[in-house]
Structure formats: structure tokens, C-alpha cells
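quick one, 461 residues, struct below
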Amino acid sequence: MKLKNRLALNFALFTSGILFLMGGLIFLLYGNYLEDEFTSRLHERCMIASQMYLDDDELSPQVLEQIRQKHTRTLPSEQEYFFHLERKDSILPYLPDFLAAKLSGPYSEAQEYFKVEKGDTLGVGILYRDDQGPHFTIVTAVNRQGNQELRELGNILFGLAGLHLVSIFFIARWYARRMLSPLTEMTEKMKTVDTANLHIRLHPLPGQDPQDELGSIVEAFNKMLARLETSVETQRNFITHASHQFNTPLTTILGEIELVRQHYKSLPPAVAESMNNISEESERLNRLTLRLLHLAEVGTEGVNAQGQSIRIDELLFQIQEELKAAHPEHPLWIDTATFPDDPDALVVNGNINLLQIALFNLAENGLKYSQAPVKVFLSVDSRYLSVHFQDEGMGISESELEAVFTPFFRGQNVQSRPGYGVGLPLAQKIIELHHGTIYIQSEPGKGTLATARLPLEQAFI
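---
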């Protein structure tokens, strides 16, 4: 999840959580208020009912009529119960269970009021004294209006909280995008920086304070680029100088050996053999030097972000022709049946010279350690093209498989074969510079499958 979305979501959840808590508190307090208000009305109904049925013989006709009119305005599902305190036990079987349970215990005249509740039904009982002795008057009813109001309040609060969560998320997302837009612009510019253009520097955006947090990031990044530029430039100069310094004496040695051979046609066998050894080792040192220089150059030159369109099939056929001379007995076999029908699915973007070196190394590795032709086949998905090199060589043990990309590493079973241990590390660096991956699958005695996975050019259009 992007930072702006995460900030917006966290802010929306935090503020909505507070709103939910406040809504819950309001809901609880209003529920208590409705219950207290309904309890007061039940208490009033108890008093009216007591006066109506227990004091009717003591009240004047006018007062009795007023009480009768009040008594007719009943509450929803209202039930009234009257009984003498001393005859309480005889009436218990006729009362609802929750009232009987409340009155079944010992009860004294000091207890003049009680409240009982079961589900939506609320009951209030009072001890009413008249000339016939203490009586209990109990009124039960359902607070339908209060319950309906409470449900409507809950729906309103829940709906407002949900609406707040959605609206505040989009508002916070817009605000976060606006606040992070300078960082996004700087990030896009950072993506264009590689070892080929380390001279690029970030600049504060219009209206941005150079002393704020983003300004500090710009300053720190520019200082890092300056250090990297100095380091890479030093390395480039060293590679250029070292290339010249290595090639000159090696070329001189090989030239001197050839000159000796031309002037002295009949050398003693021991001297001729020594000259041949010197020539072979010089050639070997020359090839090793070139590979090491390639390995170092890949780490400093980088790949142009735009690059060029490269047809992998054409590159493979070119590599096949180059390897024919070195390995005529075991050619590189390209399985064209695996090529995709869409020609655009064969095009990648990058540096053709570097990719040729990488794929050439993978193919040559298979040919060097196999007694049979190396098969090359392709596989394509929506975003990547994979080039597979399958050989039937001696394979690589599991313990050595993890170290094959370490420079100068060579397996125990290939020590007698010519090689330097820099081909795979060089190929890995090149493929990674092209935003791809390379991996090796192998078992001893069952050959090796080397795969280079490269992003398709059309996947980034």
C-alpha cells in the first residue's frame, strides 16, 4: 500500500474510532435517560392506579374524575397488579415469573419502591398505604417509543460514522497526496539516476523551504550523489588505465614470442615447448584480463534508461554463429518452436553489447561442460521473456549451487576444464542491470538449466 493511502486510512480509522466511541457514549447515555424517564412515568402510573382503585371511596367526585381521566391514558402493554402486603404469598402464583421472583423473598414495609426489568418490559412497584393497610401496586409496560427512538439514534450514529469514515479517507488521501507531491516528484527524478548520469542533482521545488524535512532529504541525496560520482569516476579512470597497462605488456609478450618463432625456425624442443607454454598462458591471461575488465565496467557504466530495442532471437542466432568456431562438435541448438507468434514478445530493452556478453557466457558455459549440444528455448508471459539454456553436462551439486555467482568460484568437478569463474557473475550483473533475474537449476549427472529472465519492452509502454 502506498504511503498516501496508508496515511489516509490510518487517519480515517483513528478519527472514526473516536467518533464511534463518542457515538457509543451518546447512545448509552441517551438509553439511560430514556429508561429513567420511562421509570418515572411508571412510578406516576403506580400512584394514579393506587389512587384510582384503593382510594376511590375517600376522594371527591371531581378529584376521582380527574384521576380516572389520567388513568385512561395507559402505556404500551401496560399491566397493573394490586395486593395486600400481608397476603403477598397467595398472589405470587398469578404474577409473571420475573415479578414473582422479585417478590418471593422477605419483604418489609421499609422497602417502599422497587424496579424490575425483563427484556423490553419494565416494571415499577410501590408500597401504598391506606386505611385498609399497606398494599403493593405494580405497573409493567413496554417503552416502545423510547426503544424506537434509541434504535433510530443508533442508526443515525452508525450511518454518520460510516459516512465519516469514507469521506475522511478520501479527504485525507487528497491532502496526503498534495503534501507528498514534492516527494513524489523527487522520487521520479531519483529513478533516472544511475552510474551513467551521476552528475544529476535534485533541486528544491518551487515554494519549498530548503530548510524543511524535504529540503534536508534533497541536500543529503545530493551529497551522496557527489560521493558516488567521485567514487565511480575514480573506478572508471582506474579501469581505463588498467586496461591499457595490462594490454600493452601482454601484446608485447605475444609479439616477442611470434618474433622469436619467425627468426628461429629450428628451436630446441625444450625451448619450443617453453615458448608455447608462455604463449598459451599469455593468451589465457589476456582473456582473463578482458573478462575482469568487463565485470568491472558493468558495475560502473550502467544501462541507459531508454536503451535500445533488441530482438532476442536475432541475438541468439548471432551467438550461435560465434560459438560454431569454438565448439564445432557440440553446436548450440535453438528450438525455434518455442518462439512466440507475436514478434513484439521477442523484444527487450537495453544494451545489446552487454546482453550479448551475458547470453554468450551462459551458452558457452553449457558447451564447455557438456558432451552434447546445448538446447536453447524460450518462454513468455505477459511481462517477461525467459531464455533457457539446457545442457547435458556433469551438473552442479546442491552445496555448490549457491556459490556459482561468486567471482572466481569453480566447482570441484570442473577444475580440470578451462575457465576463470567470472562468466556467471558477469552475466548476473548484466541481467540485473536490465531489471531481470538469472537463476540456475542443476543436479549432479543430470545437466544444468540456466535461465535469464528479462522484462519485455512492451510491458513498459
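Residues 3-54 form the longest helix (52 residues).
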